Amino acid sequence: MTHPPRQYPCPDLIVEPAWLAAHLGDTDLLIIDCDDADVRAVRPHIPGAVPL
């Protein structure tokens, strides 16, 4: 049995890296980091991102 591909329910909340880089200074931008603490400790972090 095959299942239809899942689609993200709010695609307008996902942005391309270039868009994010261009808008990092926006005061009304909220970036949520969904990685767990172990992953955040070993990889670069997006400036201003709030851990979930």
Summarize the structure.
This protein has 52 residues and is of the alpha+beta class. The protein has one domain. It contains two helices and two strands.
Fold and architecture overview:
With 52 residues, this protein is α+β, with helices and mostly antiparallel strands. The chain has one domain (13-51). It is 25% helix and 8% strand. The protein contains two helices and two strands, in the order H-E-H-E. The protein has helices at 17-23, 37-42; strands at residues 32-33, 50-51. The N and C termini lie far apart (35 Å).
Short descriptors:
single chain, 52 residues, two-stranded parallel ribbon, 8% strand
Helix-strand blueprint:
Elements: H1 17-23, E1 32-33, H2 37-42, E2 50-51
Parallel strand pairs: 1-2
Rounded mean pLDDT is 81
- What gyration radius follows from the Cα positions, in whole Å? 14 Å
Which outline best applies? extended
Task: Determine the structural class based on helices, strands and strand pairing.
Answer: alpha+beta
Which sequence of strands runs across the widest sheet?
A: 1-2
Number of domains: 1
In terms of quaternary structure, the protein is: single chain
Helix content: 25-40%
Order of helices and strands: HEHE
**Strand tally:** 2
| Regions with little confidence, pLDDT below 50 for 5+ residues | none
Fraction in beta strands? 5-15%
Largest sheet: 2 strands, parallel
Distance between the termini: 35 Å
Helix segment tally: 2
